[in-house]
Specification:
CATH topology: Carbonic Anhydrase II
Number of helices: 7
Oligomer: single chain
Shape: globular
Order of helices and strands: HHEEEEEEEEEHEHEEEEHEHH
CATH architecture: Roll
CATH superfamily: Alpha carbonic anhydrase
Largest sheet: 13 strands, mixed
Number of strands: 15
Family: Belongs to the alpha-carbonic anhydrase family.
Distance between the termini: 125 Å
Radius of gyration: 26 Å
Protein name: Alpha-carbonic anhydrase domain-containing protein
Strand content: 25-35%
Length: about 350
């Protein structure tokens, strides 16, 4: 039986198949723009972290000032948890949360959580090293892009999460900012234990800065095995802790009721990635600044939402409700009384 194949129809079907379109060319944003920083998140967001950062070998880059909003506002509640792998701090506010704008950010980034890394000796513990030197601990503060609504959703996007990493140096005396946290450790010694803490504004814990910090992109590998592209900010301003304070971290238990002696991640190679030195200002002899003798005052400001709606502020922030217009009116009344 002879089979007749319609070769013309087959040929026409092949010809009608659409050829794959060539990939769109990647346009590199102009250097000096914030978009240029975001571009490297696409290129280098997969590289491993943590790494060593240093003024040497970094690229000086000018950005607008980083602005801290609502860090002086008292939270409704603060919870501290021993997860078995780290100490985790979460807080809730009745209305608007603290957030960051400006700097290397194109839009608003909301505070999510705070956690710590430490080691078994005073010679190890920090995730990052600075000038090839490690420190006893590190505090990492996570922010996520507000348009993604949650940290879980933001982690799915290369531009979704920013982690600010504070190195914790050895200090002869105890750091009062950390004492507020560390004093609660005996109550969360067992893994998976959480307690409520005395609510305080996070400006009492976080050293705020608007310039003079390092920025790079790299991969975050979680305990669950997930991997995400994250932007890392390492300020030159550091916290400090006494020998006794660092020792309190090592008294916490892991999920197997053993002391959690170390939870820092291994240092990775920088490779060819970009490390940006954002808006350098202070003395650049060393990459980390000296421990200040007097704690710096808060540079946090109230957001427009709080300014327009003072009722949103908790009672503890009543001192912020002083209206200049009211003060002026009272002064005019006093002047009238005196003239009489």
């Amino acid at each position: 039986m002879e089979v007749i194949v319609n070769t013309e129809a087959a040929t026409s079907e092949v010809e009608e198949e659409e050829e794959p379109s060539p990939p769109e060319p990647v346009v590199v944003p102009q250097i000096g723009t914030i978009e240029y920083l975001y571009y490297w998140g696409l290129i280098e967001g997969h590289l491993p972290t943590p790494i060593d950062v240093s003024i040497t070998g970094s690229m000086r880059y000018t950005c607008p000032p980083l602005v801290w909003y609502n860090f002086d506002v008292f939270p409704q509640k603060i919870k501290i948890t021993n997860t078995g792998y780290t100490v985790l701090i979460g807080a809730k506010w009745k209305t608007e949360r603290p957030y960051l704008e400006g700097g290397p950010l194109l839009d608003k980034h909301v505070l999510s959580q705070i956690h710590f890394h430490w080691g078994a000796t005073m010679m190890e513990g920090s995730d990052h090293s600075v000038d090839q030197e490690t420190h006893p601990a590190e505090m990492q503060v996570t922010f996520f892009r507000s348009e993604y609504l949650t940290q879980e959703e933001a982690l799915k996007h290369h531009d979704g999460v920013v982690i600010v990493c504070y190195l914790i140096k050895y200090g002869v005396t105890a750091d009062e900012r950390l004492s507020w946290i560390i004093d609660e450790f005996p109550r969360i010694q067992e893994a998976q234990t959480s307690i409520r803490m005395d609510p305080r504004p996070l400006s009492h814990l976080l050293p705020m800065f608007h310039e003079d910090y390092f920025l790079y992109w790299g991969r975050l590998h979680t305990v669950r095995g997930d991997e995400y592209a994250v932007r890392w900010l390492v300020p030159r301003t550091a916290l400090y802790a006494s020998y006794e304070q660092i020792g309190e971290f090592r008294k916490l238990w892991d999920p197997w009721d053993e002391p959690l002696l170390r939870n820092f991640r291994e240092l990775q190679e920088r490779e060819d990635r970009h490390i940006f030195f954002i808006s350098p200002h202070y003395n650049q002899y060393r990459s980390l600044l000296p421990i200040p003798r007097i704690p710096e005052e808060s540079i946090s400001i109230l957001s427009t939402a709080y300014q327009a709606n003072p009722w949103m502020l908790p009672p503890e922030n009543a001192y912020m409700l002083e209206q200049p217009e009211i003060v002026e009116e009272e002064k005019e009344d006093d002047d009238d009384d005196l003239s009489r």
